[in-house]
Amino acid sequence: MPIMEIVFYLFSAVLVASALCVVTVGNPVHAALFLVLSFFSAACIWMLLQAEFLAIVLVLVYVGAVMVLFLFVVMMLDVGPSRAASRIGAYLPVGLLVALAMGLQLFMVIWTRGLESQVMPEPRPEGYSHTSEIGRLLYTDYLYAFEIAAVILLVAIIAAISLTHRRRPGTRHQDPGRQVQVRREERVRLVKMSSDGEER
Questions:
Q1: Terminal CA-CA length for the chain
Q2: pLDDT digit string (tens) for 88-101?
Q3: d(C-alpha 150, C-alpha 138), whole Å
Q4: CATH topology classification for 3-119+129-143
Q5: Is the pTM of this model over 0.70?
Q6: Helices H / strands E in the chain, number of each
């Protein structure tokens, strides 16, 4: 079996295992870290396929921006299993494990592509652009799938906003309708004070 297939199957196994951990672990922060590992594994597979643009976009956009947003949402919704587990030391082993796996994957990609005897895909002609090719495929062959993904993302945004604005027991909320109906006599009491500070 060629080394390219071995590395591909290894990255695919890490991707599938980390994706399963995303939906099975009980801690939302651990799930977010495993999701980072899933994105990084997919980026390494795209690098093996010489799709460097997709790989770097996946790392920069999803790992660098979307995951930060996910962590903000997790912290804002307070969906953690317990407040005691919010210490940074509790997440250090999982974070080190994810960082180690990402480093090993990146090393294997660089090492595999450096082998001269390995049969690599044919290079693209001069002037080939990944960006224009992706745009052409998205808006022609995969237009319906692209629009369905956009609708799913819109539903996810609405669900996140609804979860954020839900009413929790024990919290106080303002009611503008009741505020505008309040009369002065219900909120203000005039008190006459003497010069020595005693109430008359």
A1: 98
A2: 667 778 878 888 88
A3: 12
A4: Four Helix Bundle (Hemerythrin (Met), subunit A) (1.20.120)
A5: no
A6: 9, 0
